[in-house]
Amino acid sequence: MLFGILVNEGPYQHQASDSAYLFAKAAIEEGHKIFRVFFYHDGVNNGTRLATPPQDDRHIPNRWSELAAEHEIDLVLCVAAAQRRGMVDPDEMKRNKKDADNIAEKFRISGLGQLIEAGVQTERLITFGD
Amino acid sequence: MLFGILVNEGPYQHQASDSAYLFAKAAIEEGHKIFRVFFYHDGVNNGTRLATPPQDDRHIPNRWSELAAEHEIDLVLCVAAAQRRGMVDPDEMKRNKKDADNIAEKFRISGLGQLIEAGVQTERLITFGD
Amino acid sequence: MLHTVNKSPFEKNSLETCLRLIDESSSILLIEDGVYGALKNTSVSDSVINAQKTTKIYVLGPDLKARGLDKSSLISNIEVIDYKGFVNLTIENEKIQNWL
Amino acid sequence: MLHTVNKSPFEKNSLETCLRLIDESSSILLIEDGVYGALKNTSVSDSVINAQKTTKIYVLGPDLKARGLDKSSLISNIEVIDYKGFVNLTIENEKIQNWL
Amino acid sequence: MEEELESGVVKKFLYINRRAPHGTVYAHEALEVVLIGAAFEQDVSLAFIDDGVFQLKKDQDTSEINTKNFSKIFSALEMYDVEKLYVEKESLELRGLTEDDLSVDVKVIDSAEMKKLITDSEVIFNF
Amino acid sequence: MEEELESGVVKKFLYINRRAPHGTVYAHEALEVVLIGAAFEQDVSLAFIDDGVFQLKKDQDTSEINTKNFSKIFSALEMYDVEKLYVEKESLELRGLTEDDLSVDVKVIDSAEMKKLITDSEVIFNF
């Protein structure tokens, strides 16, 4: 089965990103495929590479990067939500004349069309949010 | 009157940061003083300099920076919350071996003691959150 | 004591808990989505009217206006104030409790 | 259709609305703070028991355990499942509705 | 985007709006999804339930809180061929509102009809 | 920090906890404030109201959701001289809980007493 996942909250503040991750992992273990995880609203904050959680705590952004690397999952941050909240990749950095970017590995920034596409192309779209 | 303000949510997702800003501005216009604005939980995300909101929208982080510059307000991001969420100043960048920082002007990162101190030293502490 | 409530009473229990736990000498200021608690003819209007016997209720005008509401939409005797009025309430009352 | 609810029924109206708007052939999975809706002897237990006449209710075990609860705390006939069971529910049901 | 248009798959999309405007960004950012989604030529419906009905309240004016008054977008939805707006009657009534309080033409339906609308949809978005 | 200790100001701090644990971080990060605040030698009380009572539920085990089990910190609060924990009776009852379900010693008080606790406080934190 082909899944799309929508994550609407940032890391640590709400359980949404944790639940989405554990769901994605379980789906993969059951032999299914995650077509795309789309991060919207504060969800875009999951894509930062600047987080340093306590050593005895889970590293939410890294965990997504690793899962994506291992299972070829497309991790997309909504560009409009990312711009409002200060999530920047090298292209956005140049375009908006910023002096740094902060996106983590395996995440990319793209438009809301990618979310609609996930709704059209996948067999199940599931949302985790507040 | 001396005020302390606690902001518990990030920019744009919740009205909290907008309300806190309008309250602070009105308090200053009425001749009062803001001792400190402490940003906790997702509130730390107000301190990013990488945001590019649409041109016809308010720029929440810049608005805080400007108010602080004009009226000598201490803007403090909680260090523990900031580390979890990827808000980094040059010191934190070095300490945690990151390759970029993203803090906006006039914001600084410090400990939760600064919040307690605001509770002790101010005459009124008001919280804006979700 | 000044109590603020920023949540819609139809979505969350913040106003309900505030009304259960406020002292008689308190005032309540409804802000953000909390302003919906000031509407007349709703499922929570009666409990707000009942609270008015002992509690003065205010609503933040800018938040009311943003939501397409005005004084004519509200329960009687709820006072509409601006941010300046909000600041003054926090000064008149020695303590503040924010129900989130 | 599979309906998920992730909010405490004591804090927010998500479960209440879900119960009002689900079709008879639906299943409900309680996750995150939504698991509190499965507790017995609470102010919402009766409405959940009533819904069980037509709706199968599941609760996510890892979230239940995190909150210090187990099967003995729950209303009868609520099934505790793990993330693998969660995935299987989304496959058995053709559609998903997430009440946030 | 073209890829989808070419794929010819048309699904029944339902956007469920259950939150008040302005207190959080969900209502506003949900509308951005609807606008982008309109280009994909799917079968789109919007449902307003619970505090979501407040999104459609007439006369919203955000000038004093300096945020965007996105409520104006609702009246533009028709130009994007998004024309099926459903409002739950029970949600309106509990909030002391009537159809006259709303800024756009909608279809007011009861809970039983809303239940059917949800059941008949294929992809549901909740923000 | 020393500055405050030297200032000698002692205020009545009240932390009001109204949220369930784990679904959001508020309960956990509130506890971090309590721990840091303990060093400031203020007069500290904690109130558990509404879903906040769930924070004190016994036997929490977060191993299967991979988050921190901060509920263990409650039993350590005594070492920090944080000893006044108040739980609202009505909140427990609505949730089918009794004092036996809780992991630490608390004082269960009714709404009237909770009202007085709030009124008598000087600085109140809500997260």
- Which word captures the global form of chain E? globular
Proportion of beta-strand residues of chain E: 15-25%
Estimate percent helicity of chain E.
25-40%
CATH superfamily of chain E: DsrEFH-like
Count of strand segments of chain A? 5
Hey, roughly how much beta strand do the residues of chain A contain? 15-25%
The strands making up the biggest β-sheet of chain E line up spatially as 4-3-2-1-5
> Would you identify the CATH H-level superfamily of chain A?
DsrEFH-like
Tell me the distance between the termini of chain E.
22 Å
Count helical runs of chain A. 5
One letter per element, helices H and strands E, the order of chain E comes to HEHEEHEHE
Q: Mean pLDDT of chain A, as a whole number?
A: 98
> Major sheet of chain E: size, sense and barrel closure?
5 strands, parallel
Rg calculated over all Cα atoms of chain A: 14 Å
From the structure provided, what is the oligomeric state, counting identical versus distinct chains?
heterohexamer
State the secondary-structure class of chain A. alpha/beta
Q: What is the CATH architecture term of chain A?
A: 3-Layer(aba) Sandwich
Please explain how this structure is put together:
The complex is a heterohexamer, with two copies of chain A (130 residues), two copies of chain C (100 residues) and two copies of chain E (127 residues). Chain A has helices at residues 16-29, 60-71, 79-85, 90-95, 113-121, and strands at residues 2-7, 33-39, 74-78, 107-110, 124-128. Chain A has 130 residues and is an alpha/beta fold. Chain A has one domain: Hypothetical Protein Ychn, Chain: A. In chain A, strands 4-3-2-1-5 form a five-stranded parallel beta sheet, sandwiched between helices. The longest helix of chain A has 14 residues, at 16-29. In chain C, helix 1 links the parallel strand 1 (2-5) and strand 2 (27-30). The two termini of chain C are 16 Å apart. In chain C, strands 4-3-2-1-5 form a five-stranded parallel beta sheet. Chain C has helices at 14-21, 45-51, 61-66, 83-92; strands at 2-5, 27-30, 56-60, 79-81, 96-99. Chain C has one domain: Hypothetical Protein Ychn, Chain: A, CATH 3.40.1260.10. Chain E has a single domain (12-126), classed as DsrEFH-like (Hypothetical Protein Ychn, Chain: A). Chain E has helices at 2-7, 26-38, 89-94, 111-120; strands at 12-17, 43-48, 84-88, 107-109, 123-126. Chain E contains four helices and five strands. A five-stranded parallel beta sheet of chain E has the order 4-3-2-1-5. Chains in contact: A-B, A-D, A-E, A-F, B-C, B-E, B-F, C-D, C-E, C-F, D-E, D-F.
